Amino acid sequence: MASSSYNVCVIGYGMAAKIFHIPFIQLVPELKLYAIVQRSPKPGDNAEKDCPAAKVFRSTEDMVKDSAVDVVVITTTPDTHYDLAKLALENQKHEYDSNGLFVLSPANCATNRRWDSDFVTLSKLIETGALGRIVEFETHYDRYRPVAPSGTWKSETIAGGGVVYDLGTHLIDQVVAVAGLPKKITGFLGTQRESNTSGYEDSCTVLLHYDGMLATVKASVVSPEVDQLRFWVRGSKGSFKKYHLDCQEDQLKEGKKPDDPGFGVEPSSHYGVLSMMNGEKPVSTVHATADYPTYREFYMQLARALAGKGDVPVKPEEASAVIMLIELARQSSASGKTLDV
What we know:
Blueprint: E1 6-11, H1 15-25, E2 31-37, H2 47-50, E3 55-57, H3 60-63, E4 71-74, H4 81-90, E5 94-97, E6 101-103, E7 108-109, H5 117-127, E8 134-142, H6 163-166, H7 168-179, E9 184-190, E10 203-210, E11 213-220, E12 229-235, E13 238-243, H8 248-253, E14 272-278, E15 281-287, H9 296-306, H10 316-335, E16 339-340
Helix pairs in contact: 7-10
């Protein structure tokens, strides 16, 4: 492996690859988009034309034979991740699973939404003690999508599928990042859509029980709101309430590049509200979402870790904790019981 540059191969060439990974890999000087695995190119969806400097393989089996590949990023459907990750590791590649798992010899995990600007803003309020002792932590990813999308794994029942693995991974990871493991967990997984023939679990509510704090993780597809709630965190000194999701995903879908001016910067209309006690009365003020590192920071930390100059973006034990909580949430929902962690 070269000491100054690391060759990255992205497996899959769908939205996750194009939106969440390739643009940020290309911004890190120590990383090179060396190759892409795309089985079936189509007109208007062709990695060879979009990324002419990268090699394109038609199968992962062919790719792992290339000794120049250092890092593998998996962006395919969740039911393929285990086999692809195993294949990559057996061929001495570092591997990142885009559905929330990161493997870096031998195991690690991360989610890019630790670099959501609103979550970083909230984390700073908690870390500095501005909100006091936290008693309730709500994190939401709610939308109004009463009709299931067609032609996508997000409406099919597959291994590693369902909203608790898709979106819940990010939300649970954020809670664990600031609060650690809970004592107990209660899960409610199911469907809110009127028509759901596949059995796909499109919505979830997961309660994480801590000593003195309750965290609520919620993802809904039937939420007819003008502005969707994102965070509502209450403490002994104050509360923070924010609507709207982090803007990076929408900006990327609109064609904005991560190095464009204003990328990752929220409009003031999306700022949260900070309410602090002033004597016996709360006083509310608009709290600006700070200009923090974007999703690029994940890959910058990865490059430093590969060079032996820092830690991996997320520790292995944090990865396994999130997966454990998801599995316990599923068991809780199936049994109708609150479970010990």
